[in-house]
Amino acid sequence: DVKVTQSSRYLVKRTGEKVFLECVQDMDHENMFWYRQDPGLGLRLIYFSYDVKMKEKGDIPEGYSVSREKKERFSLILESASTNQTSMYLCASSPVGGDTQYFGPGTRLTVL
Amino acid sequence: SQQGEEDPQALSIQEGENATMNCSYKTSINNLQWYRQNSGRGLVHLILIRSNEREKHSGRLRVTLDTSKKSSSLLITASRAADTASYFCATDDYQLTFGKGTKLSVIP
């Protein structure tokens, strides 16, 4: 079975801090994705990556950056966290040409 | 990017009843997928239906797709308390775009 893990289930940070959210998948998938999920807004795509060192902006990339140095790992970076980035963050992966995405358990981030 | 819209936003039924959720979308798609999310967890893929398919079954799940109406429905038959979750449709053109979900509560 595909396993996607995220570094933390819950995270509390202060405004202005630099925040790293890590995602690791064990199925050698080429594609990886970061979403945020907010009540009433559903899932919105922040960034995605089709290969190592490749990244593409999603629908809401402002305030975020990503890093993909290894195939299995995709990191989401909040350079200077703000309260409006309080959200549930979900990572997903899929194989090249694959339709289905496999999700991690999510990280609930609170920025105070 | 386009977005699927689920209807209803929330649904409460008794155990054993059938649950039907609908999804509408705006433009052409390659396929449409349904995902489930238990409270506070990640999403789990349930079923995928391609644009040239009209109906698909998987266990107690039945999905229909009407491309002329740009709509899909997910039917869960003989619901169980464990089916309580949020259900999302996701449309796939060049990227996967999720709707806002239907929150299903199955009362024992």
Helical residue percent of chain B? under 10%
Structural class of chain B: mainly beta
Mean pLDDT of chain A: 94
How much β-strand is present in the residues of chain A? over 45%
Kindly report how far apart the N and C termini of chain B lie. 39 Å
Shape of chain B: globular
Strand count of chain A:
11
Instruction: Provide mean pLDDT of chain B, rounded.
Output: 93
Q: Specify the biggest β-sheet of chain B.
A: 6 strands, mixed
Low-pLDDT stretches of chain A: none
- Unreliable spans of chain B are none
Radius of gyration of chain B from CA coordinates: 13 Å
Give short descriptive properties of this protein.
heterodimer, A: 112 residues, mainly beta, 7-stranded mixed sheet, globular, B: 108 residues, 6-stranded mixed sheet, 5-stranded antiparallel sheet, 11 strands, 0% helix, 57% strand
Task: Report on this structure.
The complex is a heterodimer of chains A (112) and B (108). In chain A, β5 and β6 (56-57) form a beta hairpin. The radius of gyration of chain A is 13 Å and the shape is globular. Chain A has 112 residues and is mostly beta strands. Chain A has no helices and eleven strands. Chain A has strands at residues 4-6, 10-13, 19-25, 31-38, 42-49, 56-57, 65-70, 73-78, 87-94, 102-103, 107-111. In chain A, the strands form two sheets. In chain A, strands 2, 4, 5, 6, 9, 10 and 11 form a seven-stranded mixed sheet that branches. Chain A has a four-stranded antiparallel sheet with strand order 1-3-8-7, with no helix packed on it. The mean pLDDT of chain B is 93. In chain B, strands 2, 4, 5, 9, 10 and 11 form a six-stranded mixed sheet that branches. Chain B has a five-stranded antiparallel sheet with strand order 1-3-8-7-6, with no helix packed on it. Chain B is built from no helices and eleven strands. Chain B has 108 residues and is mostly beta strands. In chain B, 0% of the residues lie in helices and 57% in strands. The chains are: A mainly beta (112), B mainly beta (108). The A-B interface holds A 4, 35, 40-43, 45, 48, 58-59, 88, 90, 92, 99-106, 108 and B 1, 3, 30-31, 33, 35, 40-45, 48, 88, 92, 95-101.
